[in-house]
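ugh ok fine here u go
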Amino acid sequence: MREKILEKASELFLNLGFKSVTMDDIANEMGISKKTIYQHFTNKTKLVEATTDYVFHFVCEGIDCIRAENKNPIAELFQINTFIKQLLKNEKASPQHQLQKYYPKIYKKLNDNKFSNIHECVTTNLKKGVEMGLYRASIKPEIISRFYFLGATGIKDQDLFPLDDYSPNKLVDLFLEYHLRGIVTTKGEKELMKYINQNN
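structure:
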């Protein structure tokens, strides 16, 4: 039951926002009593924390599966990009914004975990790209991976990119292209254009 509650809570929180969804909403959606939820989570804050961990691990597992395919670094990033867009497709709220505003400690923990994961993933991708001649040898992976993290999290800032004006999926695509154009070699640019043309 705990797993089912986390599945439903993550769906509702991501689609409608952490503040907007109540324990009653989750219970009603599942056709169970609120008491059943409280048997597994003592309060909403505990449920929010467990849900963010659940979603984070789901995303990490998906990305790890893609990385295990050992594709070239540009192909890998485009496949991860597609995976992330699938997660965003039904997003009608800004869960990150609400999490930061109403649950700052949970947001901080999640952000630290995201940085650690993204930093390792992107640094590895950058080094591999340099070895394959797809990325310029002069890039600094340690710094570029931090730039990447700032951009990937920054495009979710609703003050900068209001949902009414900017499509989350389009922003993800534009950010990836922006990132890659800044680091590719001539050989890498040919590979990049192949994927851009496939997606257009």
